[in-house]
């Protein structure tokens, strides 16, 4: 790709980007959120048209006016959010984008398709039953289906957009092997990520994007995570400050044998006991979907436990009553920012007052004190450096990082005793992640008991004082950070046995 | 804020003009006659208020619920039930003589209570069993209409006139006693404009709704709940109570419209074939609320304009001005207003190849 420029109203997403990936290599595209990675890949797959610049595939200039053109040129993309038809079988999904071979005929010859899918799966270590329905598959398996789809279509250039976001460390390792295999086969793999160690682990070369520019292409073997981070952020990162030893106080959040049902019935949380002390950060590690969200909602009163007791600062708030939990001092940063944590079309000021509007000074009696609410909003916007057009703007206009700042500003300003933060940095860029982390540190330093739910082991290891691992609704292991190792936690997250079990 | 509705209105007039031309009418003179019959001619304004008052009530009722994205389509039935209960109160408490504040107050309370109770049926079903309030409230409109017919035609009910010459010939309802008739203020202009008491109540209701929705905790909660029920629950709001309260308020306003029909205009609970249940005030109210974008004061204005249009249609209907045309014009206005709304939310771009993605860069 030469001199690619793409402008959106108010933003230049790609500014003269040169990018070249060679046959048989895994080429990583590294950059923060908003650096232009997605735009670049959308241009490469024919979803957008570049305003300037040209694309060359195998030395021939091409012009894509639709995604199908890119497919015909052998370019395939595995999106972060899968594009699969849940009710279809694996084989049906694979043949969906095919308009050349088996997919061309009016009646599909499932036997042939299934056989080819099975063959491909075997060759690249992507074992999936071709007849399984997609909704029955795990996220990791669904990703394999996406890759199989690309292989089936004879993709010579495969783009993966943050493929490891949904995987356990072990699953990611398997994926990396598959990708290496494909590269060895003469295909080109473009790997989009903002995780440094992954890029180091899988890529041959790395192109770093920053602010719409391609700032460098380096060999992965020679680069260090540190040098990549500097390229990505544009300045040296603050030393990953080793968290100071905090003296934890008394237990502010106590879970005793808590069980809760999932959205579709069935037990999502099974007999969890856990204690969080004032001034400490306890991380709950685990792959998404192992009951962490349900547990967080139970603590926040949004879900009634089917058994057990939740104690907050020695009291037991009425279970299943969010207001009781708020009164007891539980702050909750939900995983779903826009929709649960924030009301999208409601103003920033109102969203900041979402939990305080009931009491003075935000209201007096049944009446709201609109000016107080606005003044408070202006103050919080400044203090938390929220980039916002103004307190009256609907909150949905903000970017992901700023949305999270609105949630955090509100939750911290309620002077909580307990803070439950569910995946607070998911989807945020490096800068925003850093500020979220420092807010969590501040909260702990101020004596709040923090329960951090995260899938990101790096994050857990930098923040947590203690780590509990959750698997299939149970806490399968708990250690102090000092004794923890990534391998061991990853193994527990994936449901492996605790190696230290006697 | 005003540009889009105004542009939609202009467009609607052009489009309706084409319809008028196509049906062999002079568009400009037709418009002039419509305007004249609605707002200018002797007695026109008073008659417009007669049409506009019920639309204001049902419009406010719809706006109150729709603002919280509770789609109460049942304004029609709530108005009818309000008319039934208010008529009962008027018959029971009214006596001969001049207007009695007590009888009128009893009618207001009974009308509101009746409408609220009727609206609470879909409200309770929605809050506790998560049924779709659109369907249940809509179906209850039919129940209410048949209930009204039943009370007058098929039973010796409290409301039915059982003595006298009329009753022997044709089933009819009792006339309200004179003290239960609502007084109006007359403005001595253009042959006298009667301001019905109900119109005053409608203005009052609009003011109350405006304060409720923009200045109170209740309105704050309704706004959040309408936007995102999950966020409302997250913030510890009592969502069920709120659904019940909003449905009750919406129903009470519609029911007050029914009481106003009894007291202001009809002076009886009528059920004749062209009576109250053939006016479809409830459904027109939804249109009014939508055109007013659920703003209570805008509802009053739109109700006045739509009321004028309907009044003009009634006055002018005849060989040279089919009343159906007014319906057509109303339809075109609604259509362009909703179309204009769509244009605000989406942008039409004409390009060589349809760009696949909306202009949403990943701006941080």
Tell me what you see in this structure.
- The complex is a heterodimer of chains A (502) and B (364).
- In chain A, helix 13 packs parallel to helix 14 (430-445).
- In chain A, strands 6-7-8-3-9-10 form a six-stranded mixed sheet, sandwiched between helices.
- Chain A has 502 residues and is an alpha/beta fold.
- Chain A folds into three domains: 2-233, Rossmann fold, CATH 3.40.50; 240-329 and 416-502, Rossmann fold, CATH 3.40.50.300; 347-413, no CATH class.
- Chain A has 16 helices and 21 strands.
- In chain A, 32% of the residues lie in helices and 24% in strands.
- The termini of chain A are far apart.
- Chain A has helices at residues 37-44, 67-72, 90-95, 110-124, 139-152, 169-184, 196-202, 225-233, 292-299, 322-328, 348-352, 370-383, 400-413, 430-445, 457-463, 486-493, and strands spanning 2-8, 11-17, 26-30, 52-57, 60-62, 75-78, 157-161, 188-193, 205-210, 213-219, 251-261, 267-277, 281-285, 307-312, 330-333, 363-364, 367-368, 418-422, 449-454, 466-471, 474-480.
- In chain A, 48% of the residues are buried.
- With 364 residues, chain B is mainly α.
- Chain B has a single domain (46-340), classed as Orthogonal Bundle (ABC transporter involved in vitamin B12 uptake, BtuC), CATH 1.10.3470.
- In chain B, 69% of the residues lie in helices and 2% in strands.
- Chain B has helices at residues 3-22, 27-40, 44-66, 75-93, 101-129, 133-154, 165-169, 197-215, 217-227, 229-234, 239-266, 281-291, 296-316, 324-345, and strands at residues 184-187, 193-196.
- In chain B, strands 1-2 form a two-stranded antiparallel ribbon.
- In chain B, strand 1 (184-187) and strand 2 form a beta hairpin.
- The longest helix of chain B has 29 residues, at 101-129.
- The radius of gyration of chain B is 22 Å and the shape is globular.
- Residues 353-364 of chain B have low confidence and may be disordered.
- The A-B interface holds A 8-11, 13, 32-34, 36, 38-39, 42, 47-49, 65-67, 300-302, 321-326, 332, 334, 336, 339-346, 350, 353-355, 357-358, 363, 366-368, 370, 399-401, 429, 432 and B 215-220, 223-224, 227-228, 230-238, 353, 355-357, 359-364.
